[in-house]
Amino acid sequence: MERLETHGCFGGTQEVWKHASATLGCEMRFGLYTPAHDPGERLPVVYWLSGLTCNEQNFITKAGAQAHAARHRVIVVAPDTSPRGEGVADDPAYDLGQGAGFYLNATQAPWAAHYRMHDYVVTELPALIEAEFAASDRRSIMGHSMGGHGALVAALRHPGRYRAVSAFAPIVAPAQVPWGEKAFSAYLGPDRTAWAEWDATALLAGAAERLPILIDQGEADSFLEDQLKPWILTEEAARLGHPVTLRRHPGHDHSYYFIASFLADHFAHHAAALQG
Ligand SMILES: N[C@@H](CCC(=O)N[C@@H](CS)C(=O)NCC(=O)O)C(=O)O
């Protein structure tokens, strides 16, 4: 492991680390914010999953998360959004390949060799963070857009692993929207029955835990009507009695200006669950 960046920030440190991922078979970078803490103290961890085209930098440089993490005394881990490197399959489009891993485990060539972001985020990365840093095993997960989909799927597939889950402008039903149909066709193949394992709305009925979901959505988001459609999830949640809070915000788009505007509420929601 190699530390690439370190910056004092709100009394703690914002770092960027690089390591060799066995799950992904390539080098990966992640952002790590650690608040001030006592020697030997272990703090809970919030995992952040970014959206299409992002790497480990977008959230740590644009969201203003460090102030909230310092106040609530939680570590924040922000991984890259896909495997990377010359030996890793890619596609010229922004919504497939590097920068667009969709937080699933691919089964189809040429993607299956490296694209295992679900296992990386849910298993390998937490094991590393809890072994090497001042982290406890109290975890929560949040994300944006493709990363909101990743956070919802991680929590729904692993009851008990996360104490809170929330999302900004998430893709809630990838099997029913163009971004997801394109990515799932490539990564999982044409058989749509395999897609249901990676679709938050489809997973909801069989969820072994009714962990409350908090979602913020901008009404001026250009992806709202075609790609995000949060009502697909809220209608299914209402049918099942799964607690979902969807807050819609006029005048807010899909950008990090929107995320920064409501991030304090997400940290408060996560901290209450992590420290309770
Ligand atoms: N039209 C955009 C779509 C990608 C996009 O909006 N990405 C969002 C996540 S889905 C993002 O966070 N972009 C990086 C940023 O705003 O820092 C593009 O081609 O870059």
Automatic annotation (TrEMBL):
<dbReference type="InterPro" id="IPR000801">
    <property type="entry name" value="Esterase-like"/>
</dbReference>
<dbReference type="GO" id="GO:0005829">
    <property type="term" value="C:cytosol"/>
</dbReference>
<dbReference type="Pfam" id="PF00756">
    <property type="entry name" value="Esterase"/>
</dbReference>
<comment type="function">
    <text>Serine hydrolase involved in the detoxification of formaldehyde.</text>
</comment>
<feature type="active site" description="Charge relay system">
    <location>
        <position position="254"/>
    </location>
</feature>
<feature type="active site" description="Charge relay system">
    <location>
        <position position="145"/>
    </location>
</feature>
<keyword id="KW-0719">Serine esterase</keyword>
<feature type="active site" description="Charge relay system">
    <location>
        <position position="221"/>
    </location>
</feature>
<dbReference type="GO" id="GO:0046294">
    <property type="term" value="P:formaldehyde catabolic process"/>
</dbReference>
<dbReference type="GO" id="GO:0052689">
    <property type="term" value="F:carboxylic ester hydrolase activity"/>
</dbReference>
<comment type="similarity">
    <text>Belongs to the esterase D family.</text>
</comment>
<dbReference type="InterPro" id="IPR029058">
    <property type="entry name" value="AB_hydrolase_fold"/>
</dbReference>
<protein>
    <recommendedName>
        <fullName>S-formylglutathione hydrolase</fullName>
        <ecNumber>3.1.2.12</ecNumber>
    </recommendedName>
</protein>
<dbReference type="GO" id="GO:0018738">
    <property type="term" value="F:S-formylglutathione hydrolase activity"/>
</dbReference>
<keyword id="KW-0378">Hydrolase</keyword>
<dbReference type="InterPro" id="IPR014186">
    <property type="entry name" value="S-formylglutathione_hydrol"/>
</dbReference>
